Amino acid sequence: MIGDTSLYFASFNRNKKGLMLNLKTEQGRKILHKLIKESDVLVTNYGPNVPSKLGFDFSTISEINPRMIMTHITGFGRTGPYKNKSAFDGIIQAMSGIVHLTGEASRPPTKVGIYIADHIAGLQGVIGTLLALYKREQNNKGQLVDISMLDSMTSLLSYNLSDVSVLGNSPHRAGNDSTNVFATTFKTVDGYMYIAPLTDRMWASFCNVIGKSSWGEKNSPYYDVNHRLANYEFLKEEIEKWTINKTNEEVQSMLEDRGIACAKVSSIEEVLDNPQIKTRQMLQKLDIENKFNKEVIVPGNPIKLSGSHDNIINNPPLKGEHTREILKQLNYTNMEIEALVEKNVIYANLKD
User: Fold this and answer.
1) CA–CA distance from 52 to each of 23, 56, 87, 103, 248 (Å)?
2) Fewest CB atoms within 10 Å of the CB: 42, 102, 112, 159?
3) CATH number 1.10.1740.10 given to 184-265
4) Is 98 helix (H, G, I), strand (E, B) or coil?
5) What is the Cα–Cα distance from 337 to 330, expressed in whole angstroms?
6) Where in the chain is the domain with CATH 3.30.1540.10?
7) Which fold has domain 39-173?
8) For 126-185, what is each residue's pLDDT tens digit?
9) pTM (2 decimals)?
């Protein structure tokens, strides 16, 4: 929290308007139905049966607006034996196999450091919504987009599924070590560097830089990527003898001058100061009044369109901040709105 503002809420809900409805009331559902009638997309992450109980399941909204796209994001989807199970990000990460693959081989499995299942399901929801909108241009009909968090995370497993089912291998945790190429992190004086000399040219140049030029010659046992993988631990130990006496800046400068792929392992504080991220407008400031007098930074829009240069960032809404504004657009009078407030059908923030 910063003052009365949740930074978690702020990072996800800028550029939105806030309307609060009591959908357990008939009048609340009536307002939602009016919005549905003139909208294109409805997104919900309620449980599978909740929309039906609250009067906005797909069959209901299709009668109101046959062109409506409804995107329903749940933990396990609307079908299958697990559809009514409770789901949270960590539960889905664990069940998907992602946690099994994450972490050091000698240590317990580890969750990804962000709420990746929530994020990936949201992105899949966007893709599904766009596909449905595109199809609607052809047939003038809406669709129900059924998105499962577990499906979304399973889609990230890529070749691991075939590795087990066809080849009989058992993928394991490898920490920061790439499993199909020689690339990993190395300790330095002031942190860690991720170094990825993937091509033959990069590997030969890298070996010259670290004083192991013979490793980069064609008759070396480490010239071939498969042999490098077979000698992973030895190579890591030897290379770290070189990096451990140098700063991140020194290592990066020496390697980048030779065109060798590398990157400092950045803290979030360093991300906030990254010139590339700044230039791409990925650090946006919210104009939130707060007693700490510090900038509230949130991620910018990663999608840059050549035909659009607007980068407007509005503050996240207060609870029910735009309730009155939206209801007026639906032709409710001030008297009708205040009556709905009195009956607890809606909540309208006093700052509206």
Assistant:
1) 11, 6, 19, 41, 56
2) 159
3) no
4) coil
5) 11
6) 184-265
7) Rossmann fold (3.40.50)
8) 999 999 999 999 999 999 999 999 999 999 998 889 888 888 888 889 999 998 999 999
9) 0.90
